[in-house]
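Researcher: Structure prediction, please.
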Amino acid sequence: MPAFALRRAGERLLGPGAMAYLLHLRPMEWPIVTAHFLLGALLAAGLRLPPGRALLAWFVFVVLLNGGTLAINSAFDRDEGDIGYLRRPPPPPKGLAPAAAAMLAAAAGLGFLLPPLFAWSNAACVAMAVLYSVPPARLKARAGWDLLINCLGFGLLTPLAGWGLTGRPLPGWMLGVSVGFALLFGALYPPTQIYQMGEDRARGDRTLAIVLGESASLGLAAGLALAAHLLFAWGAVRAGRGPAWLAPSLAAWLGILLPWWARWRRWTPARHQAGMYWCLGAWALTDASLLALLWPR
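Model: Predicted structure follows.
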């Protein structure tokens, strides 16, 4: 497989130890976070972004913050099966936790070189990364808290941080769109857990998907996807735009989640994992739809 060929090439170039550190930063997720982060920046300023500030903000938010968040999660989870954006993970190196902590500390400090909305959104995400993965809080193991942390961090604060790097005032419609993304991440989160329920149960974690069960989790996901699109439509109207561009996005989400909800008993863990990646494709369509709808004039 190409992914494992690239991994083997990286191990030859960097050595297995250094490659293990890099893999647990899960760079396969960086394009997804980058796209969602840049959505906020592009809605604020179009292509008129300050290049130096945008590059620094990207490095802080995507490489240091997101990479450090996923690495510290790996350090404490020590999964042996597939995890999000990393198949067949190597054993976490012994120094992964302190390395991840250093990345998160650097992200928090460097964030304050940028405008306040970015700096405080970024700092809140650093705090939530620690609370999410590190004992004794370890909110990812507490049903409901795991969902809230992810909705706030990736859904709400990521596009706000992107807007914030521009230094422009935040309009009400953008806040509504960002809250919509918090709900949309609520729709994405159960699909990220369902295929890992066996390992989570073995660790004693009580994730949202385990507490609710597959059927209720997928029903919740479909309801949150619909609620998110209603907020997107409200934001579009507040911005003086018609919401018709949102129809393909909503159709994609419901076209994935409703059949999955109806047939989940017949799906294998591998099929559930594939469903998660289909939802990521729907998310990309949502980003593209909102860019087309709300591009600055």
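Model: The chain has a mean pLDDT of 89.
Researcher: Thanks, that helps.
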